[in-house]
Specification:
Subcellular location: Cytoplasm
Pfam families: RecA_C, RecA_N
Number of helices: 12
Number of strands: 16
Oligomer: single chain
Number of domains: 2
Strand content: 15-25%
Distance between the termini: 124 Å
Organism: Duganella zoogloeoides
Main location: cytoplasm
Largest sheet: 9 strands, mixed
Order of helices and strands: HEHEEHEHEHEHHEEEHEEEEHEEEHHH
Family: Belongs to the RecA family.
Strand order of the largest sheet: 5-4-6-7-3-10-11-12-13
CATH superfamily of the largest domain: P-loop containing nucleotide triphosphate hydrolases
Radius of gyration: 27 Å
């Protein structure tokens, strides 16, 4: 047919594209548009461990990705803050600077210290309003000097208008608009500065839902879209020592994952006052990977017995961090997850030395 568009030659297309690129670079600066050259090296996503081997494996890349937004949500007392504090401790081990924006005003610094957080290197803020919390987060991220920011929690980010208003005022969508605006501003600088930003969120129930889950998270839908990783953490049972409850059995589901296949699950124990039982996970995953042998109740590694019963074997590995590190890295290699960096050398204790003191003048005369 005559009304068909004429085919543009490839040479003219190339000239038009070159002219368009030149105009864009002139207007917005060099590097505004780049060609994704196949020969150019592709940078791996940098990650930080969560402190849980099972969860690192479920995430597919060995931890939480840097330069991205992460959302962790779940019911009350399910382990959300514990998981983020452990991640802070792991980031500090790598020499990173971390900030904790405590919008709930409920951070237990003693517990954080027990989980391995170095409080002297941790930046803590307890903002008065949601706007203040997000402005502080934005300033820290834009500085480029902070490696990780945790906001605890989205539900506690109260807009200024709500604080200044009366208790019964209806302000629909105020927090959702605040979160949407903040994430639009934050996402670019988070990626540019390679900062990991974790939002802890709470669960609410939708009214009148007949089919499907009535659960929803606070703060609107913006965070669901901007988050590269979303983790649903739940308490599934109790760990008892006799009649005393000493911890929780925990399940984490990777609900969304932009850097690896999603919908994987991790099961681990959270012990009160100690956090995730990392050694217990090493044993469980080591047995699955056939790196640790289990015969009856005995655990063995390389033909040598580690302990009878999981508790004894766990204590054995706690006392030997180098052995635990070796087994964990073998498990990670077998599952295709990147290995941990070498442990920092522990300074050896020097033997007691006898110091000869110079005798006083009186002692010398008596001699």
């Amino acid at each position: 047919m005559d009304d068909k568009k004429a085919v543009v030659p490839a040479s003219e297309k190339a000239k038009a594209l070159a002219a368009a690129l030149a105009q864009i670079e002139k207007q917005f600066g060099k590097g505004s548009v780049m060609r994704m050259d196949a020969s150019a090296p592709i940078e791996e996503v940098q990650v930080v461990s969560t402190g849980s081997l099972g969860l690192d494996v479920a995430l597919g890349v060995g931890g939480l990705p840097r330069g991205r937004v992460v959302e962790i949500y779940g019911p009350e007392s399910s382990g959300k803050t514990t998981l983020t504090l452990q991640t802070i401790a792991e980031m500090q081990k790598l020499g990173g600077t971390c900030a904790f924006i405590d919008a709930e005003h409920a951070l237990d610094v003693t517990y954080a210290q027990k989980l391995g957080v170095n409080l002297s290197d941790l930046l803590i803020s307890q903002p008065d309003t949601g706007e203040q919390a997000l402005e502080i987060c934005d300033a820290l991220v834009r500085s480029g000097s902070v490696d990780m920011v945790v906001i605890d929690s989205v539900a506690a980010l109260t807009p200024r208008a709500e604080i200044e208003g009366d208790m019964g005022d209806s302000l629909p969508g105020l927090q959702a608009r605040l979160m949407s605006q903040a994430l639009r501003k934050l996402t670019g600088s988070i990626n540019r500065t390679n900062t990991l930003v974790i939002f802890i969120n709470q669960i609410r129930m939708k009214i009148g839902v007949m089919f499907g889950s009535p659960e929803t998270t606070t703060g609107g839908n913006a965070l669901k879209f901007y988050a590269s990783v979303r983790l649903d953490i739940r308490r599934t049972g109790s760990i008892k020592s006799g009649d005393e409850v000493i911890g929780n059995e925990t399940k984490v589901k990777v609900v969304k994952n932009k850097i690896a296949p999603p919908f994987k699950e991790a099961h681990f124990d959270i012990l009160y006052g100690a956090g995730t039982s990392r050694e217990g996970e090493i044993l469980d995953l080591g047995v699955e990977a056939k790196i640790v042998e289990k015969s009856g109740s005995w655990y063995s590694y390389n033909g040598e017995r580690v302990g009878q019963g999981k508790d004894n074997a766990r204590i054995f590995l706690q006392e030997r961090p180098q052995l635990a590190w070796e087994i964990e890295n073998r498990v990670r290699e077998s599952l295709g997850v990147r290995s941990l960096p070498p442990l920092a050398p522990v300074a050896a204790e020097k033997p007691d030395t006898v110091v000869k003191l110079k005798p006083s003048k009186g002692e010398a005369d008596a001699a």
